[in-house]
Amino acid sequence: MGNIVAIVGRPNVGKSTFFNRLIQRREAIVDSVSGVTRDRHYGKSDWNGRNFSVIDTGGYIVGSDDIFEAEIDKQVELAIDEADAIIFMVDVESGVTPMDEDVAELLRKVDKPVLLAVNKVDNNKRLENAVEFYSLGLGEYFPIASTNGSGTGDLLDALIEALPVNEAEEETELPRFAVVGRPNAGKSSFINALIGEERYIVTDIAGTTRDSMDTKYNRFGFEFNLVDTAGIRRKAKVKEDLEFYSVMRSVRAIENCDVCLVILDATRGFDGQVQNIFWLAQRNRKGIVILVNKWDLVEDKETNTMKEFEAMIRREIEPFTDVPIVFMSVLTKQRIFKAIETAVKVYESRSKKIKTRELNDIMLPIIEQNPPPAYKGKYVKIKFCTQLPTPQPQFAFFCNLPQYVRDPYKRFIENKLRKEFDLTGVPISVYFRKK
């Protein structure tokens, strides 16, 4: 299982800014108003070759009378309980506050690595002022400035050293397909329909599935493990402690599967939560199949309704649009086996190993006809390419000036690889290296 790191602290200390820097994209809302982070945000990060998931929690407020803030506090405590390590962020501008002391008291009881990050330390005066945070009794602190990245390297070095090294899971030759999506989208019903028995409790109440469960599937020439996960949904809708753990297990299931079957309810559309699940799977470099369930319940369907719905999904997932989309109905069993056939094909594509000679014979003529555009008067010459020995498709292209290859050309190469080697539904990585 991958490591999980929780970022905690009182409101308005810069947790979301730091989270965005870790995952290298602007996902969490950053605002100067206290309490903006109402939902937890999940992201994937890596440092010095170690991958880990990051949770940006809501601001912790001890003893608040606000019901909403009390709910945030409970979720922060659960994040602390589930995480492998905690980054406790404070603000040098305001100094040690009673809230900081309350959170520190909570963290001193935690038998897990806790790293104290003093944020907004962007000059020598503030560096001197940071000394007062020793009074929190959490040992060494790390002065950082999340807005410009100052000091974050030392913090992450210490984090990686503190993270427990997880024992490798028992190796299995069977591929693992994780069935993920919002609550009540039809995940458990989908698995029941496939295996032909009521293995999972299926109700109309969202959140019935509490844990990730594996089911071996061996029918019609296919053999793999199906992983049913609890529905991932917004924190504002989470009412029970158990469901938070279910969310975390869903995140772990995505991290440790081969292909994600992202199920969405056609009557609700491809909304923000489903998109979050999709991008979480994409950032983890998993094979992806989008399953549009309950298509039979969509009213007023016309000739082009399905094409328009599919086009809408592809617009939302740009630039990774080469993803198979299957419209189905679990209730009537329409196209459910098509969904499995598609997932198996994506798994085979993700596992594909392309011979170096074949790769060069196909890609080098394409590159010769469409060379990288000149940049600052410099011409890039690509001489050789190879697939890297990684679990998912990654390719290295060796050239004289890799620093001058721009993102549009990288996407061009990626699209050609997809087309020539049938890598539909598989996130791939393209690297340009010095020959």
Structure in words:
The chain has helices at 15-23, 67-82, 98-108, 124-129, 152-162, 187-195, 241-255, 272-283, 305-316, 336-350, 356-369, 407-421; strands at residues 3-8, 41-47, 50-56, 85-91, 114-119, 141-143, 176-181, 213-219, 222-228, 259-265, 287-293, 325-327, 382-387, 394-399, 429-434. The chain is α/β, with parallel strands linked by helices and 435 residues long.
Q: Which percent range fits the helix content?
A: 25-40%
Total strands: 15
Q: Main beta sheet: strand number and arrangement? A: 6 strands, mixed
Radius of gyration: 24 Å
Which stretches are low in confidence, meaning pLDDT under 50 for 5 or more residues running? 25-39, 64-69, 199-212, 231-243
**Separate helix tally:** 12
Q: Structural class, please?
A: alpha/beta
Q: How far from one another are the termini?
A: 36 Å
- The overall pLDDT, averaged over residues, is 79
Q: Which series of helices and strands comes N to C?
A: EHEEHEHEHEHEHEEHEHEHEHHEEHE
Kindly report the spatial arrangement of strands forming the biggest sheet: 2-3-1-4-5-6
Secondary structure layout:
Elements: E1 3-8, H1 15-23, E2 41-47, E3 50-56, H2 67-82, E4 85-91, H3 98-108, E5 114-119, H4 124-129, E6 141-143, H5 152-162, E7 176-181, H6 187-195, E8 213-219, E9 222-228, H7 241-255, E10 259-265, H8 272-283, E11 287-293, H9 305-316, E12 325-327, H10 336-350, H11 356-369, E13 382-387, E14 394-399, H12 407-421, E15 429-434
Parallel strand pairs: 1-3, 1-4, 4-5, 5-6, 7-9, 7-10, 10-11, 11-12, 14-15
Antiparallel strand pairs: 2-3, 8-9, 13-14
Helix pairs in contact: 2-7, 11-12
